[in-house]
Amino acid sequence: MCLLNVVGFTQQGRSQVGVQLILEGSSWLAITLSAWLPWSVLRATGPAPWWVKGLGHLGAALAYSAVHMGLFTLFRAALFAAAGQAYDPWVTVDNLPYEVGKDVISYGMFVAAYLLVGRLAGQRPPARSETAELFDIRDGARLVRVRLDDILAVTSAGNYVEFRLRDGRRPMMRGSLAALEAELGRADFLRTHRSWLVNARAVTGLTPEGSGDYSVSLDGLEAPLSRRYPEALKRLRMGAS
Predict the structure, then answer these.
(1) What is the separation, in whole angstroms, between the first and last Cα of the chain?
(2) What pLDDT score does 153 carry?
(3) d(CA 184, CA 38)
(4) Residue 69: helix, strand or coil by DSSP?
(5) Do 109 and 88 belong to one domain?
(6) How buried is residue 19: exposed, middle or buried, by Cβ count under 10 Å (0-12/13-18/19+)?
(7) Which of 50, 86, 150, 229 is the most buried (most CB within 10 A)?
(8) Are residues 118 and 11 in the same domain?
(9) Cα 148 vs. chain centroid, distance in angstroms?
């Protein structure tokens, strides 16, 4: 921090603590307002060769120093004027190299911090919706990748299972409904009938059919709910409440 001439400030009974708060606070505020410059240059020179990046950051560091010193000088002049005191805005030749050196270091620290944050952000694991919510249906030699929310229900068809998708498609895959129930049970798929597995998140209504059976509405599709699956009925009622 450069020490500039403070005229008459203590003559009004102001403490040196107050002076230092103004000096330090104005400098930190100016640094905060100047932090956009290293970020902008870092983004602008991202794909450039190393020597272009070096020249760009060198020029930006000097500009950052000029902006920083200009801002804190304005802030200090305004604060001292508000107190009815004079403030000398001229930086001595001895203090100028010191200020520029500190600002270059500060600029480099901002660049390092931005690079670290960018690296950490790039190493984050993908969100659950990008991985766990997808399901691969192997329809013969064809692979159909769908979101679990787009699967309304799955029905048994001999040695195959048939998927009822939200868009009307009905791809088939070799396998058993029991094995699929074990795989999709964690994603709120419920067995409602010996031949039906429904997506509980897609259920829009329950209609009594008599004798304890129900009809399950799933976005235009109707699936049976047998009285032999009371746990499924309980879970679906809880979800509808």
Answers:
(1) 64
(2) 95
(3) 49
(4) helix
(5) yes
(6) middle
(7) 229
(8) yes
(9) 23
Task: Read off the pLDDT of residues 165-195 as tens digits, 9 standing for 90 and up.
Answer: 999 999 999 999 999 999 898 888 999 999 9
Kind and range of the H or E run holding 91 = none
Alpha helices in the chain (DSSP H): 16-34, 36-44, 50-82, 95-122, 128-131, 177-184, 230-240
Which region holds residue 159: left if phi is over 0, alpha if psi is between -120 and 50, else beta?
Answer: alpha
- If one counts the domains in the chain, the total is 2
Query: Is 178 part of any domain?
Result: yes
Rounded to whole angstroms, the Cα distance separating 160 from 112 reads 56
pLDDT at 76 > cutoff 90:
no
Note whether 107 and 143 are same-domain residues. Answer: no
Query: Is pLDDT of 224 > 90?
Result: yes
Eight-class DSSP state of 7: E
Closest CA to 56 of 36, 42, 35: 42
Residue 89 forms part of a structural domain? yes
Residue 168 CA: distances (Å) to CA of 147, 160, 165: 14, 18, 5
The torsion defined by the Cα of 191, 196, 201 and 204, in degrees rounded to 10, comes to -120
Look up the domain containing 82 and give its range. 6-122
What pLDDT score does 75 carry? 81
Are 207 and 153 found together in one domain? yes
Which of these three, 122, 149, 178, is where a domain ends? 122
- pLDDT computed for residue 215 by the predictor: 94
| Contact predicate 194/206, CB 8 Å | no
